[in-house]
């Protein structure tokens, strides 16, 4: 099983490097990604410490941060809805 996962990781890494260098994306996408990560973290921070919804605390971890990073503000709404309905 470890060998299969290592092969998948290696293939993924090589294909990602191929895409980055073949399209000449440069490193500008890293700064945009950094800005989006900071904005997503600030959005979660505002929801957690603003007191708008008292029983809603969304932990700041890689999974929640990625959800908000990909979905934006609707991602915060999704996480709040899941938190309030499931817990």
Structure notes:
The chain is flat and about 45 Å long. It starts with a helix and ends with a helix. Helix 2 (28-50) packs across helix 3 and helix 3 (62-71) packs across helix 4. The model has no long low-confidence stretch (mean pLDDT 84). The chain has one domain (26-86). It is built from 4 helices and no strands. The chain is 78% helix and 0% strand. It is mainly alpha-helical and 87 residues long. The chain has helices spanning 2-22, 28-50, 62-71, 73-86.
Keywords summarizing the entry:
single chain, 87 residues, mainly alpha, 4 helices, flat
Q: How does the SSE layout of this entry go?
A:
Elements: H1 2-22, H2 28-50, H3 62-71, H4 73-86
Helix pairs in contact: 2-3, 3-4
Keywords: Membrane, Transmembrane, Transmembrane helix
Transmembrane segments: 32-51, 63-86
Pfam families: BofA
Quick overview:
The protein has 4 helices and no strands.
Number of distinct helices: 4
Percentage of β-strand residues: under 5%
H-E string: HHHH
Query: In angstroms, what is the radius of gyration?
Result: 17 Å
Distance between the termini: 35 Å
Query: Percent of residues in helical segments?
Result: over 70%
Task: Count structural domains.
Answer: 1
- The gross shape turns out to be flat
Structural class estimated from helices and strands? mainly alpha
Oligomer: single chain
Mean pLDDT: 84
Low-pLDDT residue intervals, each spanning 5 or more residues: none
Main β-sheet: number of strands, strand sense, barrel status?
none
**How many β strands by DSSP?**
0
């Amino acid at each position: 099983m470890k060998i299969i996962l290592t092969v998948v990781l290696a293939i993924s890494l090589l294909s990602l490097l191929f895409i980055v260098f073949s399209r000449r994306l440069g490193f500008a996408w890293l700064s945009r990604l950094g800005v989006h990560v900071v904005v997503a973290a600030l959005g979660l921070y505002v929801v957690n410490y603003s007191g708008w919804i008292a029983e809603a605390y969304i932990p700041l971890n890689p999974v929640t941060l990625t959800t908000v990073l990909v979905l934006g503000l609707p991602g915060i709404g999704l996480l709040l809805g899941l938190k309030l309905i499931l817990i």
